[in-house]
Amino acid sequence: MTRLLLIGPPGAGKGTQAERLALAFNVPAISTGDIFRYNVTNNTPLGLEVKSFMDAGAYVPDSLTNAIVADRLKEADAASGFLLDGYPRTTDQVAELDRLLVAEGTQLDVVVLITADTDEVVARLLKRAAEQGRADDTAEVIRHRLDVYAEQTAPLIDVYSTRGVVVTIDGLGAVEAVTDRILAALAERGLRASTTTL
Ligand code: AMP
User: Fold this and answer.
1) Which residues of the chain have pLDDT under 50?
2) Which pLDDT does position 132 carry in this prediction?
3) Is 195 a member of any domain?
4) pTM, whole model, 2 decimals?
5) Do 195 and 21 meet the contact criterion of CB atoms below 8 Å apart?
6) What residue ranges carry the coiled-coil annotation (predicted)?
7) Residue 178: exposure state from Cβ atoms within 10 A (0-12, 13-18, ≥19)
8) What is the CATH number of the domain that holds 32?
């Protein structure tokens, strides 16, 4: 049973690391951003509802986001652990996740904070914009997403730090090196991956 959160500014490499860690720990990587993007691409009712928020680099309302996560965590594959990527992002979402976990009689093992300085994350996001053409990766929207992160999500680091569950990982460098750092920090906390050959 491994229950992890990944937190960090846009462009810190959360998505990439989430997929690698999910493989290593054999748990589903649950990314609210991916769920929303999937729905936007497929023009579902949810997609139509969230598109304008995403395009503007704003957060999707908590009520909608919380409902999506509550549903997703009820699925069978999340029963034996999960890795949440990009959720929670607001104090309201922390409260909802707490409620869901208490209801299940479980708790988070570790919150992995991936750090990267602003110049680096902006450079990475602009590169991703050129490669993937994400609607929210333009210079202006990137700036807004970073502001929203600083305002609404960075304060969550204190909330989880007070609980003693945060490990801070330098997100600079090669993807593999960052994964190794995370795996080492998790192992120190007694969380051993089922495989380290990624
Ligand atoms: P991401 O791929 O995690 O950077 O998320 C892309 C976009 O999806 C964000 O800029 C938000 O518009 C939306 N989003 C993803 N996760 C959340 C969340 N936990 N709360 C609110 N909005 C979210």
Assistant:
1) none
2) 87
3) no
4) 0.94
5) no
6) none
7) buried
8) 3.40.50.300
**Which residues make Cβ contacts (< 8 Å) with residue 18, sequence separation at least 6?**
6, 29, 31, 83, 85
Tell me the residue range of the domain where 54 lies. 2-188
Which atom of ligand 1 is nearest the CA belonging to 85?
A: 3
pLDDT score of 128: 87
Say how many Å lie between the CA of residue 165 and the centre of ligand 1.
Answer: 23
Give the residue from 99, 52, 39 showing the smallest Cα distance to 73: 99
Instruction: Tokens for 92, please give them.
Output: 């309201």
Q: Which residues participate in catalysis according to the annotation?
A: 14, 89, 128, 134, 145
CA pair distance 13, 178, nearest whole angstrom: 9
Domain contains 196: no
